[in-house]
Amino acid sequence: MNKFYITTPIYYVNGKPSIGHTYTTVAADALARFHRLKKEDVYFVTGTDENSQKNIQAMEATGESDPEVYLARMAAEWKQTWRDLDISIDDFIRTSEPRHLAGVERFWNAVKETGDIYEGEYEGLYCVGCEAFKATSDLVEDRCPLHPNKELETLKEKNYFFRLTKYREELLKLYEAGNDFVMPESRRHEIRNYVADHLSDISISREKKSVGIGIPVPGDDSQVIYVWFDALINYLTAIGYGTDETKFEHLWPADLHLVGKEIIKFHCALWPAMLMSAAKNDPLLREENGSAKLPKQVFAHGFFTIDGQKISKSLGNAIDPRALVPTYGFDAIRYYLLREIPFGEDGDFSHTRLQERYTADLANTLGNLLNRAVAMSRKYFDGKVPDPFVTQAALPEVSGEWSGKEGLDALAVAVGKAYEHTRVDHALELIWSGADRAHGAGLSQANKYIEDTQPFKLVKENPEAVGRILYALLEACRWYAWLLHPVMPQASKQIFFQIGLNEEKELSERWDEALVWGKLKAGTPLPEPRPLFPRLNEEST
Ligand SMILES: [Zn+2]
């Protein structure tokens, strides 16, 4: 069985999950669900990055004083948010857990054994917002461009360094086109330029007394490990590195790390270099030929603005995704985030657009199609799925005929490819408009088919033809429920229910076995239809 190991970054717990975190996590969830439909052995991990000064500063601002209590409370809140948004995680890792500490120690020792850790003195400008040293070339008006309100600190201390520059050539080889290690391509160019021209060794520890939190450096209690060096290792420790070798060997390397574009230097340069180094002294991390087992791909998505403005605490425009759920339901939020923004590019979150998409795409197109197909079948065919084979009655001539079976075959192939290539936005666009715009079987074309054939008029003169039309539409709804499940699991379940199917039974099949025309059985009883996406109440928006 194929395995599919997918991760989000682990998040700092200095605040609540925002719409940006939600975007990454929902995208990862959609991909995890798609691979589960293919009956792959999926493992989907997210978690919290707890060994950071940022968390401590946030804790102090709340008046709390016990980091353990604060971290546990915040981690629970993050975990609950993902539950509330129907995120299907297999594991949630906290970097304060013993299983993480065990793996970090093993990893540090392997890198040290390779000879890639040395002592040095570091002096530099440090941004606590980024938890990173900043080069003068990174600054805008002497400040961190991501945290213009934070004073940069000048740090000078004894640190351990990692020989990152030793891996320049190997990294450049990794970025060669065709490897698709960094996606999308624009980010690959960016990271290649950075590694070719600006790579330097980095400090991977801090004096314990100056940061107050962190994992102790093995063998030197006066130092703690730099938070990014420890955080990246979560991708290993979450699947048993240092604690469960069998599990680890089954799941590593990761198939996909989804990240925001602001952290690609860490994921696309530091992380593979760390793995190349540790692999030399840890057989768990290398292939039989001796090369390091590296993640297959890092996919970086863009930044969000809200109604055209940068998200910032001072503007107070951050959106708590859970606050949107009572109005729209979580499926609509998931749909909007994944549909509206081409994955990999920057995008804008707008309440107006969310409402427009809800009404046009979900209520009027998807909801209406299901409702009309079910309501007419109940009315004309005794509350059941009509039998398309009862007669060979000719279908009425319609312009731009909807191509049912062939169109859906093409659609499922195209949608599968889009999900496979991390282009969830593209998959959704296809489901609405069809793989072939002229004769496709997308949702819009299915609706048009009803308008063109007018079953409600035709039923008097040619009920057999209407039976075939309605069967085709109900069967198409079954396909749409499959194709949409990764993005809208609740709506998908509802669609199955309304066409008389049981979701659990339906999804126990494999994607390619289920997506075969004609599996919906004639005579299946249809329950009373109800709106899949009820109209938005003006007051509630
Ligand atoms: Zn910063």
Automatic annotation (TrEMBL):
Domain of life: Bacteria
Domain Methionyl-tRNA synthetase anticodon-binding as annotated: residue spans: 445-540
Coiled-coil residues: none
Keywords: Aminoacyl-tRNA synthetase, ATP-binding, Ligase, Nucleotide-binding, Protein biosynthesis
Residues covered by the Methionyl/Leucyl tRNA synthetase domain: 137-373
Pfam name, any one: tRNA-synt_1g
InterPro entries according to UniProt: Anticodon_Met (IPR041872), Met-tRNA_synth (IPR014758), Met-tRNA_synth_2 (IPR023457), Methionyl/Leucyl_tRNA_Synth (IPR015413), MetRS_core (IPR033911), Rossmann-like_a/b/a_fold (IPR014729), tRNAsynth_Ia_anticodon-bd (IPR009080)
Reactions accelerated catalytically: tRNA(Met) + L-methionine + ATP = L-methionyl-tRNA(Met) + AMP + diphosphate
UniProt-recorded Gene Ontology molecular function terms: ATP binding; methionine-tRNA ligase activity
CDD domains in the cross-refs: Anticodon_Ia_Met, MetRS_core
NCBIfam families per UniProt: metG (TIGR00398)
Role this protein plays: Is required not only for elongation of protein synthesis but also for the initiation of all mRNA translation through initiator tRNA(fMet) aminoacylation.
Name used for this protein in its record: Methionine--tRNA ligase
